[in-house]
Predict the structure.
Amino acid sequence: MVEHNIYDKEHLDRFCYLSSGWFKDKTPNSQDVNAQERTRLTVYAALAKHKINIFSPKDEAVVGEPGAPLGKKILDANVNAIDGATFCIVNTEGKDMGTLFEAGYAYAKHVPIIYYWEHANPDDKFNLMLAFSGITVCSSEKELNEFLDLLVKENFDFTKCEKEFEGNIE
């Protein structure tokens, strides 16, 4: 992890893999042309506030194994980081394909997943596969901070923090 992403030096082995797109996009029904990055920074700030170490692929200067093509180096570095993560937060903003791949990989590796779905309206539908693969779905910055409060209070015991999704599913 890069130095500026370390908030708890006593627990360097305990970190969150922050899975998120950061490309310019436009969320449907929104004037926000960079929603992915803005939302990624919201999640980032919540993790920093709770002094949780962060691995964010955008911030890391990792290249994987020597000699591999760049794309393969990035893939290897990211999946290795997911393998070592305590948990992942997956930003669903913009439905970035790489982010969705990382969510599936984390689930397959039994790494707990928190989904962050910031633009949720009461009638919106959340994807079935995501709803049942995560330990919770947070639909606001307030919900995310409350969940992280609980997670830290329970010393990262995810069995004491799981919250089943209670919205509409597609």
Notes: The first strand starts at residue 15 and ends at 19. The chain has one domain: 3-8+21-165. Residues 6 and 14 are 10 Å apart (CA to CA). The helical segments are 35-49, 70-84, 97-108, 128-131, 141-153.
